[in-house]
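ERR on first pass: missing label on line 2. Operator R.T. fixed the label and resubmitted. Corrected input:
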Amino acid sequence: MYRIVRKKPLNATVTQMEIEAPLVAKKAKPGQFIILRVDEDGERIPLTVAGTNPEEGTVKIIFQIVGGTTEKLNHKQEGEYLQDFAGPLGVATHTDGIKKVCIVGGGVGCAIAMPVAQEFHRLGAAVTSIIGFRSKDIVILEDEFKACSDRLFVMTDDGSYARQGNVTVPLKEMLEAGETFDMIITIGPLIMMKFVTLAAKPFNIPVTVSMNPIMIDGTGMCGGCRLTLNQDGKRVTKFACVDGPDFNGYEVDFDEAMSRNRMYMDFEKHAYEKACNLLAKGEN
Amino acid sequence: METLKALGVDVETNVIIGKTLTIDELFEMGYEAVFIGSGAGLPRFMNIPGEAYKGVYSANEFLTRSNLMKAYREDPDTPIMKGGKVAVVGGGNVAMDAARTALRLGAEKVYIIYRRSMEELPARAEEVEHAKEEGIEFHLLCNPTEILGYNNPDDPRDPKNGFVTGIRAVRMELGEPDESGRRRPVVIEGSEFEMDVDAVIMAIGTSPNPLIKSTTKGLEVTKWGGIIVNEDGLTSREGVYAGGDAVTGAATVISAMGAGKVAAKGIDEYLSSK
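pass 2 clean. output:
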């Protein structure tokens, strides 16, 4: 069992937890993920590591309440325990030879982008960060990004905070003004990562995207997280859990990935309502 | 598990060797011998068009969701596609297991699609008999060439988009024996046909998981990835033993238990001689 050491809401639907898991805390690198189960009958869900404290033996996770399992997870309080917490899984984000990087995060994806930005900052790379949100009330981690970025752009879709527009707006402006990067790393909704990749293409800048498919075991055993890469005219199947989660954005079939992520949409809606009902009953 | 615990065995869960800890770290922690029984690994797909459609599962995924994650329950936390028509591709014990599981989850029809004939079908005879008794239909000498899916060109938001609708397959006949000694299936020209299905389960084997091999220096494996052991179950690394599917590729529990006994004897002799 894995104790929740600290818990803090980042906005109305996004929560940060620090979980006691010393072995994972010692090993995890930015870009890697864990798989957790809230209780014995629970679903297994992957969450990217948002930070570690190896001395204390804790791992930080940040999650958005989107379905039954995340609703149940959010209901757990400090001092309570999670059933399972396994990791670190996946391949860490490659940092070798990257001196100038642009990190583009969207929504709760910023939670995953943050440790990557921090790692590049620690390694002495020049970090430009662009973080985007739907509106002011869901802006998260702005101070953390400020601390590890040489330049930071905050965007909101509706203009209710900072600058109005999506994350590709400042990216395109920079690229059109002749700015270059060794790598653009983008983490967030699939549709956003697709458009960041398209925006970078005319300028021939490498793009790394962090894929977030549905997973079960996270060790390559089930193949549920498979995605298709277009490599040299061939369609190649990869497993996000062991080959990723980072992939070359120019190769990823985003439309297929978006379709696969909607596989259990109806089920998830029902599971969310069920969890809400159950938890509400438990409180009475 | 309870028997093992009563014998004094400590069980550590959520430790993924190769990720959470490596084999070398286990030795650093004071363990003097290690047995690898990490089992069958990555599922194979056919590499035909349409395998990314929603409703195409590996047998590993389908059985994990149903059995381990309890998706068979009335209102489970882990989802699975239930009901409709299900095609299981493959003829091994795992294919029979997946087919019968699909049926019990409420499928109206379950088909086994196998490219050779009943005579070459690798599943145990009892498994085949039970499958037939339960009403599973065998489509032998058939091989899928494409998985068909729903795509509404007028509405990209149609919720049915991307779900499986059928299988395109060809009929086969048996030719000369191949290197396995079984008669090689050959496509019958112009025999293409389609079947309506709602889900497809690929049960065509697995390849060993590379997680331990890639993080353990000096651990030798065969060209298909199976860990190489000697007659005592010893690998190319001192004190490291292995057995079961990680060595042989997918096989039965019975042969894995035998390998465990051999390695236990080997480990006992190794530790006693130290």
